[in-house]
Every structure is written in structure tokens, then in C-alpha cells.
Amino acid sequence: MEALRGGIRAKGAARAFPGGLPTLSVVTVAKNDARGLEETLSSVRGQTHPSIEQVVVDGGSTDGTQDVLRRLDDRIDLWVSGPDGGIYDAMNKGAALATGEWVQFLNAGDGYCAPDTAARVLALPIGEADLVYGATDFLGGDRLGVVEPEPLERLWRTMPFCHQSLLARRDLLAARPFDLRYRISADFDLVFAAHEEGKRFFRAGFPIARHHPGFSHASRARAVYERWRIVRRRRTGTNALASSLDPARVRIDERIVPMGPGRLRIPFLAGAIERRARSRGHSAYRWSDFRTELVALGLALRRRIDAVHFLDAEHSMLFFPGWRRRLGRLASKTRILASFHQPPGILEKTVDPGIVRRADAVLAVSSEQADFLRALAPGADVRVLLLGVDTDAFSPPEAGPPAEGRPFRCLAGGVWLRDYDAFFRTARILGARAPGAFELHAVAGRLEIPAGLDNVVAHRDVPDAELLGLYRGADALFLPLKAATANNVLLEGMACGLPIVSSDLAAVREYAGNGGARLVKGNDPEAFASELEALRRDPDLRARMSRASRARALSLSWQNIAVEYARLYEETP
């Protein structure tokens, strides 16, 4: 069906707005809600701010919605009516049609809290802010009345405000439209990405929009799941693999498995499955892993997939290889690829050699790990595919070397297999030898700093933009490790051009041993302190190591590593 168009702009005209005032485009999405649409249009027309453009995107309504649009044609700047791919597709269309400096989405049935709301928002000292948000007056559902925004620090776990009470710069929406993979939480994805990328938020101290919520309980569950996927997708290194693969070569159906119990848990069945997993040495296997293996089995039986790649095979692969073997020709064309990430000392306690042998390709992220897997499961096709890094997201600062006169900043990150005892002992040595000369930063969720270490700073719940700032503001990455295969913090630090001081482990040598790292045997704090002091004294050494780190990271960019994965996926059974 061809889209209908109307409104002032459709006739080749345009309203003249007063100069010197910010312009706001209100985008209203509607579908078979004539009454709600008319209420929203009335609320927008009643605003005292003179520079408001009204854009309506109707999804091809069959009730009286189009009659409302035609009747109010001379009061709407532009309206279109035709099929769309859902609410976020319609919102993207509306944003693309908008011409204002700012865009706000008030969908059918929504409205402003007061006639002067838009004028008050646009009169705030917004400055260079990219997004302005405020409270919402809920007119139904579980929450009634005005609900204040949650702190942005909690964005990783909840949508802090309603998108109806958000104004975003049009340029931001043009550069990053709503992601249509998310049916319910694409607004959360937009806000979460903006926050992680360091966009500037400004909070209005008053309610902005009235909203009639329309979520069912099923929709709420879907929203929670989508938000969890969004957070994990943006904060987990291996998930960059999917977006780096050439879609012309590989079509990806990505299933992200929660580390916890997951959804739709059937207690007695889940308990039995998890006990069976523990009896086979898979203590990390959970109900959510079982459900994902069932989904993969269904796709294999319907011949919908050529390969199943278990990206964290230590905890997510248990039953599928046996199911495929027992089903014979029904599922035999689906290849099994299994990636392992843990070092040998952990794999020997958590992996069943029989399951490893049933994989068509066993992927190690370091040569030492590959040697262990070959010895664990003789006959298995074990290959080494190094972990990649996003060298666009993680890059050196544009400015030159830091100003003199401040402490030499060393950065560590993460908790798993980190040797913070050596980290703290090194900090104490540096503090005694050169008081005030060193500052050691640690990005870790739960890290207790021993008393008396004034030169150590802990960071918790750090968003991506702040983490990137910490990398770029550091002089060296100081990463004592108890064991290692691949390490995201190491790779990200290398991508940001940091000289590396770390533990002399085989995997660290494989990733960073090209002139960008100084490695210490046995995690000796005295040796660590000496290496950091040498770096502080010698800016030329730092510069050489920085260049070497960045060069090695570029060779490990996901764009390069993804080519190797694509070749692997294209192999025929």
C-alpha cells in the first residue's frame, strides 16, 4: 500500500518560526487510535512555545485516524500514513522527517504536563547537552502520578526515564537511529549507548510528559530480557565478533545466555539438569544454558543453521553434542564449534574430554591453552584463534603526552585471576620510594584497598565512556595476573597505546610480547616497581612501547580476526 501524505509541508509550504528560539519537532506515532491521536495533537497545539513542528507517522490505520489527520491537515506540519515495521521503525521515519533542532516523541495518547512545558524545557541552561530528560506523569498501570527519573548511574539495570519525557538533538538521532532488533527496548538501547559514548545529559527539574503505559506482563518480561541483552552486548568483548562479520558471507543468529538461572525456570527439571551437569564436572552449567541448547537443537532439526558456535563452551555446551550424535542424519549437517577461554588449571576441573572430542572444531584463544586441549582430548581438531579488540572504540588520545607535574598513572582492571596482592605490594613500594610520584588506579567491582595506600584509587560501575577516559588518561597498564589466556583489559590497554607492565605468562607474551610490554616473572613486587619507575623516567621508552602496543592491537582488531572466523564458518561438514 502506497503511503499517504499530508500537512503543511506536503503542500510545498512551511511555517515561519520566530528567530532566536530553539525549534522542537514533536513526532507522534499512531496506529488505530484516533481519539488518542487527537488528544496528543491538542496538547501539542496548546503549547506556548512558538517554534514547535508537528510530525505524525500513522501505521496505515483502519479506524478514524486518517479522518483526524485530514480534518487537522492545516495544523500538522507533515503526516504520513502507511505500513511500517513497528513502533521504532515509525519513530525512525518520524525523526528522519523532522527539521527541528530537538526531537521529542509523544505518541498517540501522550501529552504535555502543562501548556508551558516545552517553553520551560527549552529555556533551561542546556548548553551543549545532547539529551534533556525529566519526570513523567503516569496516567495508568502499576505506577500512578509523577515518577522522578532514576539516577543515570543505574542505567545498566533500568530505563531511568520514559522516552516521552526525553528531548534529543536531531543530529544524534540521525547518526544513531533506533535499533529495530529490539521490539520493546530500542529506546533503552539508544539512551544506554548515548551514556556509554559520553553524550551529555541534562535533567529538567519538573515533569515533562503525561503517558498512558500499555505494557502487558509478557511485554514487561520481554523488555527486561532485551535490556539485559543490550547491556551485555555492549560490555562483552566477544559479542563484537558478530557485528564484525561480513553479512554477505555469514548470517548470524546470536543467542546470549545469562550467567544466572535465566527465565522460564521449571524448578524440579532445572534442578535435575544442573545436578547432572555437576556430576559431569560442569559446575557452571545452568538452566539457561540448557534452554539455549534446546533452541539450537530445534534450529538444527529444521536445517536452519549450518553451525552452532558455543562462544563460552566451558559453561554453555553439554548436551547438544550427544543429541546430535544420537539423532544421526537428522542433525548431522550442523557443525559444532566450541571456544574455550579459561586457562588449563581451570579447564581440567570443568571440561569433559568426551564432549570436547565431539566438537568439529575446538577453538583456543592462546597456544598454551590449545596444547592443553589437545592433550586433554586426543584426536580433537584444536585450533588457535586469538581474541580480537575493537580498535575503533579503544584508541589512543588525540592529544600528545600528558602535562608534567602530575603523578605517573598506572591502570589495572578486572577481578578474575588478577593478582591484587602483588598490585598493592607494588603500590606500597612505589609510595615509599617516591612519595606522590605514582598513582595506581584499579577498575574493579569489589576491591578493598588496604589501609595506608593513599596512592591507590578504586573505580566501580564504570560506564564505557569513563573507562575509555581512564585508559586514555593513564601512562601505563599495570596488570599482575595469576593466570591468563586472552584478556580484554590487556587488549583494550594495547589498543589505547599503553605501555604494558604485566606478568610473564605464555599467553601474555603471545598477545603483547612485541616490544610493547615489560613482563615480570613470579609477580615480584620489587621487579614490578622497578619496571614502572623505568617507564616514568624514560619518555622515549614509553613512546616506543606505546607505538608497539597500538600496532599489535591493530593486528588483532576484530575486523582482522573476524575474517578468520568467517573462513571457519564457511567450512563444509
Textual characterization of the structure:
It is a single chain. This protein is an alpha/beta fold. The protein has three domains: about 5-235, Spore Coat Polysaccharide Biosynthesis Protein SpsA, Chain A (Alpha-Beta Complex); about 240-385, no CATH class; about 410-555, Rossmann fold (3-Layer(aba) Sandwich), CATH 3.40.50.2000. The protein is about 40% helix and about 20% strand. The strands form three sheets. Strands 1, 2, 3, 4, 5, 6, 7, 8, 9 and 10 form a ten-stranded mixed beta sheet that branches. Strand 15, helix 16 (about 420-435) and strand 16 (about 440-445) form a beta-alpha-beta unit. The mean pLDDT is about 90.
Layout of strands and helices, then pairs:
Layout: E1 4-6, E2 24-30, H1 34-45, E3 52-58, H2 65-71, E4 78-81, H3 87-97, E5 102-105, E6 111-112, H4 117-122, E7 131-140, E8 143-147, E9 166-169, H5 170-175, H6 186-196, E10 201-211, H7 217-235, H8 240-244, H9 267-279, H10 287-301, E11 307-310, H11 313-316, H12 320-327, E12 335-340, H13 344-350, H14 353-358, E13 361-364, H15 367-376, E14 382-384, E15 408-413, H16 420-433, E16 438-443, E17 456-459, H17 464-473, E18 476-479, H18 488-495, E19 500-503, H19 506-512, E20 517-520, H20 525-537, H21 539-555, H22 558-570
Parallel strand pairs: 2-3, 2-5, 3-4, 7-10, 11-12, 12-13, 13-14, 15-16, 15-18, 16-17, 18-19, 19-20
Antiparallel strand pairs: 1-4, 5-9, 6-10, 7-8, 7-9
